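Closing statement on the magnesium ion sub-project.
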Amino acid sequence: MEKKTAPLIEIKGLHKSYFNDELETPVLFDINLKIEKGEFVAIRGPSGSGKSTLMHILGFLDHHTSGSYLFEGQPVSRMDEDSLAKIRAQRVSFVFQAFNLLPRTSVLQNVQLPLLYHPTIAPSERRERAEKAIAAVGLTDRMYNLSNQLSGGQKQRVAIARALITEPDVIFADEPTGNLDSVSGAHVMEALEKLHTDGHTVILVTHDQRTADHARRTIEIYDGRIKSDTPNVKRPPL
Amino acid sequence: MRNRDLLTLATRGLTANVSRSLLTMLGIIIGVGAVVLMTGIGKSMEGVILGQISALGPRTLALWPGKQGPEGGSASLRSDFDALTFADIEAIRSLDTVTSVAPMILMTGRAIYGREQMEPSTVGATPEFYSNQKIEIDVGRLHDETDERTARKVAVIGSDVAAELFWNSNPVGERIQLGEEKFTVIGVVKPIGTQFFQNVDERIIVPNSTARAVTRRTYLDMVTMQAADDVSVDLAKKDVESLLRARHGIIAPLTGDPTENDDFLMRTAQQAQDTLGAVSLGLTLFITTVAGISLVVGGIGIMNIMLVAVTERTQEIGLRKALGARRRDILAQFLAESAFLTFTGGLIGIASGLVLMVIVARVAGEFLADYRFAWSISSIVLAVSMAIGTGLLFGIYPARKAADLSPIEAMRYE
Ligand SMILES: Nc1ncnc2c1ncn2[C@@H]1O[C@H](COP(=O)(O)OP(=O)(O)OP(=O)(O)O)[C@@H](O)[C@H]1O
Ligand SMILES: [Mg+2]
């Protein structure tokens, strides 16, 4: 019963420091946050404020230093590696700020990559799903190009297609429109809007107010602390 | 991850970065190929060396005049070249501990038949020589006691002598010029090859008494004999040695080397075998060292290539983990990739080593009659497993380390 009522994401008093040798770099301080299933949240803040760091922790890609992170009521710090891998494979996906595509590998292969680790999507479905995801970001004519033969914006769209292919419950997108012109950016935001209306939870990072306005809620971060957390009232006309 | 995906990943890993794969494989190919080749040559050479004494039975003893024996160089240049006399031979023959005593006199001079001539090694030996050296007749007959008693001028020739002097015609009954004298060929012996690195098929054997009469010699160049059935080879050796010391008035020192004052040298077949065994062991060690160095060089090559790729591969591992790969998926992928790569390299290495060995055997066979193609399975197995081990170690070790990082740490690795 408790599981049903528990929020998707619940963070209390979370701290994050990076440790390089003996040097400690504290980045996030006392973060408290609740995100319900199906929300569309934008995280905003100046460069270096800790947005990506927070997203990586939320997206199961990095560990927090102290405080608690409950995912559907379960403490993440007590999950073992295999459970984390299972969540990464089936429940969430990530659009990286730096795209992180496999070099010397075709768009088609890059987009299919998450399916290798998805136990329930049959290999016979892979190709069709990949083509659909690539079409959704308008890259059908670049399907067989190698990732290093693409422009920055095209790489970003491949990264988005890759995140969509498993149809995850939660999508984390770190500056998904950062490298796109306004037209492609609008396409990406439309895709994210659609995911949201289909019931997926969408969490995105942006420094751009217009992009943030697509979301239903904006969290502002400043120097590693949450400065404000407000529902969006003025949504741009679609 | 599914097994089929693993296979695709492994083969794609090979083709995704062709130059890296080739360089890695090159290290393995060089390492394995060198070991296969070198140990093969070593084994063949060992065969050549050990083949030299195969003709000697294990109970054979050899006796030379002079403290240094044949190792001292040409006997005639030394003061004790005439230490072994015919009277010594008679005394040795009267011992119970040795049988089949075969005294030898070496003769020099050309062998001439018609317009053909050659420089054979001619030995005047008693019929015991044939059994001591396991010499068998091919055509005609060996010389016997009657020839010996009457000092007949007969010759038993080696197969190469027959070929050089008589081409294809039958030499038996023909007369050849040996030094100043004419000898009648009574037999041709079966080809033997090389013994102690001499081609014994270029040898002419005449009766010892005939050689003694022709050369007017009072001393012998060498004697072979067999230990009697009921005594040990070492005992027979000691018996002959003390007999000779007594006859030559030699007093063995009480401490240290008992052969110190001798004017003769005795060797057993076992000693000869040990000496050659030591030579061949030295050769094997040398070759193993060279092969080991090639393996290390190859291994360093593999290591370098694998480690150079670590940055890129670490980032790839981070990405795969971010997309849901478990630790064991990562390890399985890298294991499959490295195994595929190193195994292919190992096979190519073995194949190229073997091809080179066949070529070497062809070429060496021209110069060394006893050189045979040989390979050492154990060293091939060792080389391949070491190369594959290096490949796997340096393929998987960084992957293991990377798989332990959080996805983000791995993706940021530089
Ligand atoms: N691995 C690391 N080690 C040490 N410090 C780090 C590391 N990664 C990030 N930081 C620091 O943490 C802070 C927050 O970085 P983060 O990438 O989260 O910022 P951001 O808000 O995403 O910025 P941007 O808008 O430029 O992407 C920065 O000051 C950065 O220097
Ligand atoms: Mg960032």
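Residues 3-53+274-412 of chain B form one domain. With this model delivered, the sub-project is considered complete and its resources will be redirected to Aim 3.
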